[in-house]
Amino acid sequence: MPKQIHLNAFDMNCVGHIQQGLWTHPRDQSARYTDIHYWTDYARRLEAGLFDGIFLADVLGVYDVLGGSADAAVRGAVQVPVGDPMLLVPAMAAVTQHLGFGVTANLTYETPYQFARRMTTLDHLTQGRIGWNIVTGYLDSAARAVGLSGQTAHDDRYDLADEYMSLVYQLWEGSWADDAVRRDSASGVYADPARVRLVHHHGKQYQVNAMHLGEPSPQRTPVLYQAGSSARGSRFAATHAECVFLNGQSLPGVQKIVEGIRAQAVQHGRAGSDIKVFLGATVITGRTETEAKEKFADYQRYASSEAALVHAAASMGIDFARYDLDEPIVTDKSNAIVSNVEAMTRSAGPQWTRRKLLEQMVLGSRQTPWVGSAESIADTLIAWSEQADVDGFNLSRTVVPECFDDFIAMVVPILQDRGAFKTAYAPGTLRRKLFGQDRLPASHAVAAHRFAADQGSPR
Ligand SMILES: Cc1cc2nc3c(=O)[nH]c(=O)nc-3n(C[C@H](O)[C@H](O)[C@H](O)COP(=O)(O)O)c2cc1C
Q1: What backbone phi and psi angles, to 5 degrees, belong to 285?
Q2: Which residues sit opposite 322 in a β-bridge?
Q3: Index of the ligand 1 atom closest to the CA of residue 280
Q4: Distance (Å) from CA 420 to ligand 1 centroid
Q5: Confidence band (pLDDT; 50, 70, 90) for 333?
Q6: Which pLDDT band holds residue 456 (cuts at 50, 70, 90)?
Q7: Is 225 helix (H, G, I), strand (E, B) or coil?
Q8: Which ligand 1 atom is the nearest neighbour of the CA of 104?
Q9: What does the alpha-carbon distance between residue 8 and residue 114 come to, in Å, rounded to a whole number?
Q10: DSSP 3-state assignment of 201?
C-alpha cells in the first residue's frame, strides 16, 4: 500500500502569487480575489476534489528590493494589492465541512493576546479546521510600515518567535481548563471562574497578565505550519511545527532536508513522523503528454519573468539590478529567506547569475513546473512521496481555477486507483485528519503550558 499523499492548494488573497503574469491569461480568474463568491466557489471545488486544505500565503510590506522601488510590483500585481487571508476563512468554512485552512500570519506585527483570540475564534467557526503558518517576515518595507527603520536580524526573529509561541501556547492551552465551561442554565453558571487562570508572562519581548478571551476550541492550538529551513529555521520547526512547507527541485536535495527535519524532531523529544512535510509544486497536466505540453506553451505566453524577478529579489533580499547579467551574485548576507538563497545555490551552482535565474523562470517563478500527462504526474508525486519521504504537496496555482479542475478531474482518480489518495474524508478536525487526534501530543512544546488538572486559579 503506497503512502497516503496529502494535498493543499497553495494560494494567496491577491492577483499575482507565485507564477507571475498568469493573471493576464484570458481564462485566469485571480483578479476576482475581492469577490467573496470567488473564494466560496474555490473552497467547494477543492472539497469536491477531497483536497486536505487550502494554504494561504501572506506577506506584509511590498516588493521594493529590485531597483529600490515598488513600481514593478504594483504594475505587475506581484503580491500587491493583497487582502487579509484570515477574513476569507469563515466564508469558505461556511460552504464546506472538511476542507482545512492553513493561514499565514506574521507574528512580528501581531500582539499575541489579540492574535490568540482571533485563532480561537476561527477554530470555533471552522469546527477545528484552522492551521497557522508561522512566519516572521522578510521585508524591510513591512518594518518601515509600522515605524521601524528595518526588520530584526534573521536569527533574532526566530528568538522572538520562540517567546511568542510560549505565550500563545499559554493563552490557548493554559488559561481555560477543559472543564471550565459548564453552560449550566439551571444554575446560571456559564463558566467556572476557578477553572480559568490568568497567564502571567514576563519575557524579553512580551509582558502579559491576562486570561485568554476565548473558551476552549476543538483543537485549542491551531495546526502549526512553518516554512523556513535555514539552520535556525529548522531548529524552530523541530520544536514547534507539525507541518513543514519546503521548496526544492532536486529529489536527493529534498530527501536530505526531510531527513534532517525528522532527525531534529527526534532530538527535541518528538517522533520524526510527528512532522508532515509538504513540498511546494507546480503542476500542468492534460490527458496526454502532448496536451500538457501545449497547455504549458500557452501559459508561458502570459508569464512574466520581469515580475518574477521582483518577487525573487525581495524573497532573497538581493537587488539583482545591481548585477550585470553574467556577474556572479553575492549570496552570503541575506537577511530575508535564507532557504530560498540556498535552494537557488543548490540548483544553479555557487556562482549563479541573473541570467541563470531568469532561465529558471520558465513560468513566471523559480519553481519549475512538472508538466506531463495525468499518469506521469501521479507517478512523479508518488515517487517524491516515497523516495524523498514528503507527506504531501502544496500545489501552486497557475491559471485558476482550471489548474485545480484539471488536477482533480485527471490526477486525483489515478492517485486513488493506486491507493495513494483517500476516496473520502476522515471525520473530525484538521489535526485529527492529519495526525489522528484533536490536540497536540504530550511530546510537543505546548505540553509545558497546559492547564494542569490540579492547578488552582492564580489571579
Ligand atoms: C516555501 C516557503 C513559503 C513561505 N511563505 C511565506 C509567506 O507566505 N509569508 C511570509 O511572510 N514568509 C514566508 N516564508 C518565509 C519563512 O516563513 C521564514 O519566516 C523566513 O523567511 C526565514 O526562513 P529561513 O529560515 O529559511 O531563512 C516562506 C518560506 C518558504 C521557504
Answers
A1: -130, 165
A2: none
A3: 1
A4: 28
A5: low
A6: low
A7: strand
A8: 8
A9: 27
A10: strand
